[in-house]
Amino acid sequence: MPRMLDVSDDVRAEIGDEEADRLLAGGDAPGSYDCTSCRTPGDSDQERTSTVLFVGEETAVLAFAHATCIPSQVVPVSEEQLQGAVRSITGEDAAAPAPGAQPAPAAPVPTTPRQATLGITCGLVLIEGDLRPALVVEPDGPIARPGSAGTDDDFLPLLLEQGFHPVADMNQLPGPNPGWSALLAMGKLHAVLQPGSGGNQAAWWQAHQPLAVSDGWRAAANKAQSVLMYAAPAGSIGHQPREDLLRQALENAAAKGALVAAEMPLAGT
Question: Which stretches does the entry tag as region Disordered (predicted)?
Answer without folding.
Answer: 93-113
